[in-house]
Structure formats: structure tokens, C-alpha cells
Amino acid sequence: MIKLTPILLILLYAAAMWFFSVWRMRAELNAKSSPLTHPRLVPMLERLGRAMDLPPIRAHVYEIAPVNGLAAPDGRIFLTRGFLDRLDKGEVTEAELASVIAHELGHVAHGHTRRRMVDFAGQNVIRVVLAGTLGRILPGIGGWIANLAAAAVAARLSRQDEFEADAFASALMVKAGLGTGPQKSLFRKLEGLAGTRAATPAWLLSHPKTEARIAAIETLESRWGLR
């Protein structure tokens, strides 16, 4: 038990940090969001709801400029004001934003937020154990290698989540009669929409490459007899 104490302390610390992060995110979203009532998107929310035999999907607007969508730990779905501004400018379509909402619903349906809590704790264990071990073998760079390894694990798990959410969104978009075309066309626009072509936006770094995401959707289309 004594040997396990440091790991248990790491897990408890990771859990505390996770819950603090969730609390802070909830407070931020509550302060800077409102229900999504954009007249061009309300019909999309209704179509997605009907496709799941549910009332219209409820979503919210997160009042920040960057282009993004997110699923909060409490299951709420958000589109940023930046995304809605791009809709009003004609740079994205209603169906493309419906695919973002469908994707975030996929994260909720698969329980990715809860799973990330477990993963976050595991990554901290990996980081601390490797840093302690490698620090003795490779003084000065052992900690750096440990952080790199933990980040690689986190990125791999995040990419897995994105593929699962993409597949959910594809199925929902097809059932809603919107097809996968809007989903794929938005992927091709994302880096440009995020405001830079010279470098990948930070929030895309942990996501799969655009080509891989589109290829995965087209594999599903073939499986479903849509190609």
C-alpha cells in the first residue's frame, strides 16, 4: 500500500484538477452564452431532433470570436459566435453548422467527457512515473520526454474521440436527410475559417487530419451503400 500511495495521490490530484476545470468551464459558459435561436438554424435543430425521435435539439451560442463547437461536461451543445458570424457572411451553410452540432452530440452520446476524466488521471500517472524514472537516467531531459509521451497519449485518445463523434454525426446527418456532404465540405474549410492558413490552429492540433476524417466518412458511406 505504501508503494501505491504516490500514485493514489496523483489520481486524487488529477481528479481535483478535473473537477475544478469543469466548474470553471461551466461558470464561463453560463456567463457568456445564450440559447441558439438563429432563424436559419432553428429548422436544422428541428430536423436533427426528428431524426432521433426527439424534440428539437437545444443548443447555445458561446459569445467568443473563434470558430468552434463544443460539448460541455453537462451535455449542453455550443456553437461560438464566430461560427454564427461566418454563417451570416455566407462562408458556411446551415447544413454545415448542423453537422457541427451533430458532431458535438456524438461526443455527448459516447460519453467522451466522462472518459476524458479517466484519461486525464492516467496521463498524469504516466507523466509523473516517467519523469521520475527518466529523470534519473537522463537528467535534464527526462521530464521533457515524460511530458511529450503524456501529450502523445492525450492526442491519440482525442483523435479516437473525434472519429467516433464524426461517425455519429454522419449517421445522424444521413438520417436527417442532410447527407454527409456538408460535414465533408466544412472539414475542408476549417483551417481557413479559423483565421490562419500559415499554421494549424491550436484547437485542431489534437484532431485527426482533414483527409483522414473525410476518408473515414467515405468508408462509412460505402458501407451504408451511399457511394
UniProtKB/TrEMBL annotation:
This is Putative metalloprotease. Gene3D superfamilies: Metalloproteases ('zincins'), catalytic domain. The keyword Hydrolase applies. It comes from Paracoccus lutimaris. InterPro entries: Mito/Outer_Membr_Metalloprot, Peptidase_M48. Pfam families: Peptidase_M48. GO terms for biological process: proteolysis involved in protein catabolic process. Belongs to the peptidase M48 family. It comes from the Bacteria. The lineage of its organism: Bacteria, Pseudomonadati, Pseudomonadota, Alphaproteobacteria, Rhodobacterales. Binds 1 zinc ion per subunit. GO terms for molecular function: metal ion binding; metalloendopeptidase activity. Coiled coil: none annotated.
